[in-house]
Amino acid sequence: MREIAKKSNIATGTIYNYFPTKDELMISLIRFYWKDYGDKMDAAFSSEEDFLVKMHRIFEIIDTFIRTFEGFIPEYAKKGNEKPEGRVQKFLNEFRKGIKNALDMDKTISIVPSIKTEELSAFIAANMISIALYRLYTYENFEKIVRIIILK
């Protein structure tokens, strides 16, 4: 906190006035940056690009956010008035809805008949986040599987 105050040319007490703890400061920063990343995701979702191009852009946005805050995200999920599960579930619901809308918008896609759009949206969302978090699989290989499912 002292270093931030020094570099900002303000008194340490001023920072503590707005952010009583380092956790509060980090939560505020994560929320601020998440808003920016959310705006980028909204722009990507509403673009006229091909579905796969759009999904790759969105993956890069999520991946960058996770890389930037990977040490802090678990702590952020635990802080605040809302339960961690609520924050995560809210994000996942919006994310899946965005993917479903993107699938519906792209008229060049023909999903394998045995798979519902909602199921595919959940599959894509879960795998994008998993790849960004754990790096157990590459996005490129994941995209190959999605291409087969959407018959592209």
Automatic annotation (TrEMBL):
InterPro entries registered for this protein in UniProt: Homeodomain-like_sf, HTH-type_Tx_Regulator, HTH_TetR
Pfam families hit by this protein: TetR_N
Alphabetic keyword roster: DNA-binding
Domain HTH tetR-type: 1-37
SUPFAM superfamilies found in the cross-reference section: Homeodomain-like (SSF46689)
GO MF annotation list: DNA binding
Protein name: HTH tetR-type domain-containing protein
Taxonomic source organism: bioreactor metagenome
